[in-house]
Amino acid sequence: METDARPRASMDEIVALAKRRGFIFQSSEIYGGIGGFYDYGPLGTILKRNVKDAWWRENVELRDDVVAFDSSIVMHPLVWKASGHVDAFHDRLVDCKICKHRFRFDHLKNAEQCPDCGSKGSLTQPRNFNLMLQTHVGPMEDSASVAYLRPETAQGIFVNFKNVYQSARKRPPFGIAQIGKSFRNEITPGNFTYRLREFEQAELEYFVPDDGNDLATFETWVERRKQWYADYGVKPDRLRFYELSQEERPHYAKAGVDVEYLFPWGWGELESIAHRGTYDLDAHMALSGKDLRFFDEGSKTHYTPLLIESSAGVDRTALTMLIDAYEIDRSVDPNGKDTERLVLRFHPRIAPVQAAVFSLARNKPELVERARSIESALRRRFRTQYDEGNIGQLYRRQDEIGTPCCITVDFDTLEDGTVTVRDRDSMHQERVGAGGLEALLHERFA
Ligand code: ATP
Description:
It is built from 13 helices and 24 strands. By secondary structure, it is an alpha+beta fold. It has two domains: 11-74 and 152-322, Bira Bifunctional Protein, Domain 2 (BirA Bifunctional Protein, domain 2, 2-Layer Sandwich), CATH 3.30.930; 353-445, Rossmann fold (3-Layer(aba) Sandwich), CATH 3.40.50. The chain has a seven-stranded mixed sheet with strand order 4-10-11-17-14-13-12. A five-stranded mixed sheet has the order 21-20-22-23-24, with helices on both faces. Strands 1-18-19 form a three-stranded antiparallel sheet. Helix 2 crosses helix 9 (314-325). The radius of gyration is 26 Å and the shape is globular. The chain binds adenosine-5'-triphosphate. Adenosine-5'-triphosphate binds next to strand 11, strand 14, strand 17 and helix 9.
């Protein structure tokens, strides 16, 4: 059987599949939606959770030098003063006086002409727009009660640096990891779940002593993150690690690498890895007046560790997994007929469903019962789903949600205890004893 992959899917096709199969829905859809917010459906929720679990496993559970953290979304407003977000976390926006549309100044190709209505000279002067979402804490809505929904999770880690290293008994080099929601009042949300106003970040703050090994540690983290994307099968020709020049980095950063994926609309950032020096801890020490330096018991000295940060977007990574997995297979079947199928080639650890178990006939209680009992036994170890009906339709549905293995129970199963196992990618089918399924799936997904 010959197969070949079609050119890349458009975003419209991805969005349509995401809705049809229950990955991602527009938030508040029945009221017309709200820009920059999305909901994850039954499969999308598991996809996103799998992305987070994969990140957490690699960066926290498998490391004895990284500890877990979970800070609050609303923090003292001075946190954002110290971090620079109150004064400098803004985009420059311009409005078109004719069509009233609003644009990010840095996204305009031509500042003379409105990109939407084409009017010349209709754009206002750029002005600063702070990206933090505000709220009020307590019953009074005045300036004293203003608080912010965090625009990044990292600051919660910095302000707790001392609490964490003392309670966890850690000394640099060591890291603090957190996955959580962040909020940014983006001027132009868009490209589906790429640019959101509410999103999740997976951040790792790795603190190192200033002993001359910091740049080597930075490189090691870049390599680790490269390996992570490779392990989960992201196509290497669609991934790049862009090294920021000194002009592109903030003045305090000693090194920076942006991880970028080639989305259907072009390259976009998935993650930023940065050597931030002592900037963040220094800023909080200066404003709070509290000493956050590390105290080295051995040498009886205090020092401020350097920081290597890896900050990834969970929604962008989940979207990448979806887009990267999406393929249309064209093949010629054994009868010489052209066939086409849509298949999501998810890595088995990322796939929302790992194995689907089918009963070939809906109205045969012995088959249904046998298939259900196989499915419920496998469910303890794998993400499984039971279904029944027309085998062609069942395969099609599972291919579209990226299930790596389909297991079919038929009349022979009742005679000899064997089932058909069909592989998503090769479409190869084999007959195996039902008793060996757990070992077989374990071997394939390990
Ligand atoms: P961009 O340039 O795309 O606005 P950024 O450089 O401001 O992103 P960072 O502040 O470095 O982003 O945040 C780290 C990561 O958080 C990004 O690489 C991205 O994956 C994710 N992220 C940031 N903003 C958003 C957003 N509005 N929607 C979804 N994910 C986001």
